[in-house]
Amino acid sequence: MQQRTDTPGADRAMVQAERVTKTFGRGADGVTALDDVSVTIRENEFFTLLGPSGCGKTTLLRLIAGFELPSAGRILLDGAEIGHLPPYRRPVNTVFQNYALFPHMTVAQNIAFGLEMQGKPTAEIGGTVARMLDLVKMERLADRRTDQLSGGQQQRVALARALAPHPKVLLLDEPLSALDLKLRKEMQIELKRLQNETGITFVFVTHDQEEALTMSDRIAVMATGEILQVGTPKDIYNHPARRFVADFIGDINILDVDLDKIDEGRGVVRLPGGATASAALPEAEMRPGAVSVAIRPENVLLTGPEDGARTATGEIERVVYFGSAHNVHIRLDDGPPIVARAPHAPGGAGDRAGVILPDEHLQVLVD
Amino acid sequence: MAEAQSTLVDARRAAEVRERRARWLLLAPALLTIGIFGLFPLTITLIYSFLSPGTYGGVTWEFSTDAYVQFLFERDIFDGTLEFSSTYLQIYGRSIGLAFVATVGALIIGFPTAYFIASKPPEQRNVWLFLITLPFWTNLLIRTYAVLLIIRDEGIINLGLINAGLIDRPISILYTDTAVFIGLIYSYLPFMVLPLYASLEKLDFRLVEAAYDLYATRFQVLRRIIVPAAKPGIVAGSILVFIPGLGAYITPTLLGGGKELMIGNLIALQFGSSRNWPFGSAAALILMAVVMVALLIYVRNASREGGNHG
After folding, report:
1. Does residue A182 belong to any structural domain of this protein?
2. Is B198 exposed, middle or buried (0-12, 13-18, 19+ CB in 10 A)?
3. Is residue A114 part of a domain?
4. Which residues in chain B are closer than 8 Å to A162, comparing Cβ atoms?
5. Residues A265, A172 share a domain
6. Could you read off the pLDDT of B62-90 as tens digits, one per residue?
7. Does residue A283 lie in a domain region?
8. Which of A305, A357, B16, B44 has the CA that lies 20 to 30 A from A280?
């Protein structure tokens, strides 16, 4: 396995979806699973499709794998159109949600299957299977039947089976969802290691935002058949562009405010408490009027009740302790509730407190 | 303390006795049925096969192995010497061959049928299964006559082909092995489709997707994934078609015209016009032995192959 190299060419497009639409059923009963979706996944990237169930992420994955054909649009793999090829003609392999290991074959036979179907010579198959077993640390269980394996072991076999033919892209359909928390954490690290060691582009589907943030190079957040935002985990977390993205990933305060004007690429908004602030704008075109701004609880500064022009004051409703910090729920005098995260609680329920919402952490959202 | 323990042991023992009695009671209807309708007639058949034939049917109580000797040898009418004869072996051979071909035919037709039903949405499957079992609602004799009407020289197949100008003279199908073959497949196809469906229905179609994903073509998916998964159904279906096919009586009589004897006809003949009950009994028992040996070999091979595959 070659080591992953960050050459300038690493930004090359590996998978491109161009205006892809997928509709199931016909006429009035038809359900649009994907609506005019375009996305580019780069070579060697760990790319995650993140969204709630029914958002179209699995459909997009199945379109890349070839289990479904697009109703409209093109799918390109490494520059070549593959949208209408059957799965067995695409150099793409899948790790299925429930692994789909062949029950009548041993671990080694499962891993060898793809290579056999490709018509590789026996000697080469043996070598590759041994390397794959080593890669996923399953050498000792090569001759076991797959129904005698634990969930984590089945997971490793499924990975080895999909990686053995050295596909250009590995598709992973919620592969960790059946594992318990501890094993899931281990496998997250393991997956990242495998991606680094093999240099294969990974496309990972999950509904677990924490999993997505931990593992991905880039994330596409999806809802109702659309891609809402694509970006690095930091981008997505710190600068959610859409209300849905902000809400779906992590805890966040969303405040209804007035956008007064747009000044040098930032929005001037009127915060609760009367202060004006400058918030980051999403890429979409914005007009002055009622908008939402978002701020993470950990970016809300707690102050004393009367502490200057930027401070909004309110009453502490409750304090929730969760180990590493406190969540302080405050109802501001102007009405909206807000949550601040702080290592120490400034007081208890009923006490007065003030908050400051720093400009650099304020983000205007598109609904 | 010791007293309490011994009471406990007693109670447990009593429970065990009760349980054992309940088990036998529950088994009793099945055991009785097997005994009265299975073992008892079989014993009679076994005893009769070692007796001498009565002049007007039935048996006379005289021990004799003639029935079995007769199966392989012919007794010269004049000097009474035994000479090897393959007449009956040929009948068995032809019957086995025809039943085998019918089984393979039913498998080839039944597999796609079962796969088709299994791939339908669950709420539609029962309709298709109902259609499969629909022929059973009519008596086998009637259905066989229906087949006869279809394939005879003036039947719709031949008339249709002649009217379409494809043939000049009717193709004679009736009273040939082909007719028996068609009749057997038609009669026993549901016995193939149902067990095949039962195992294909359990097939996880994600395995099929996984195989496609791993570069297997449609044929390779069939051979490497679907057929191994359907193996129990293939074994059960083949047994269910082969055995009744081997002993079939109505189909070869009506469609084969009774020109060339099949095992079923041979046995019926012994209890009928030939009035040789011991030989009929022996022929039936030999058939049973053949089937049992064939089954043992088949099942053992099938399970070993399954074990090798995975």
Report:
1. yes
2. middle
3. no
4. 213-214
5. no
6. 898 888 988 888 877 777 788 888 889 99
7. yes
8. A305
Q: Domain residues of chain B, as ranges?
A: 96-275
pLDDT < 50 stretches in chain B: 307-310
Q: Do A100 and B217 touch (CB under 8 A)?
A: no
| A207 and A263 together in one domain | no
Per residue in B143-161, pLDDT (tens digit) is 999 999 998 888 888 888 8
CATH number of the domain that A82 lies in?
3.40.50.300
pTM of the shown model: 0.79
One domain, residues A19 and A80:
yes
The answer to whether the Cβ–Cβ distance between A66 and B212 falls below 8 Å is: yes
Counting one residue from chain A and one from chain B, the pairs whose CB atoms sit within 8 A come to: 67
Quote the DSSP letter at residue A353.
Answer: E
Radius of gyration in angstroms for the set of CA atoms belonging to chain B, rounded to a whole number: 26
The three state secondary structure string of A229-272 is: EEECHHHHHHCCCEHHHHHHCCCCEEEEEEEEEEECCEEEEECC
Interchain CB distance below 8 Å, A114 and B309: no
Assigned token pair, B136: 């059973």
User: What CATH superfamily classification does B96-275 receive?
Assistant: MetI-like (1.10.3720.10)
Number of Cβ within 10 Å of residue A353's Cβ equals 22
Q: What is the strand order of the sheet A13-24 is part of?
A: A31-42, A13-24, A72-77, A80-81
Strands A92-95 and A169-173: parallel
Taking CA A90 as the corner, what is the angle to CA A85 and CA A96, rounded to the nearest 5 degrees?
Answer: 110
Is the residue at A220 inside a domain?
yes
Query: What integer pLDDT is reported at residue B304 of this predicted model?
Result: 63
Question: Are A278 and A223 contained in the same domain?
Answer: no
**Domain total in chain A:** 2
Look at residue A129 and tell me whether its pLDDT is greater than 60: yes
pLDDT of residue B29: 94
Residue A294's domain comprises 251-365
C-beta atoms of B310 and A94 within 8 A: no
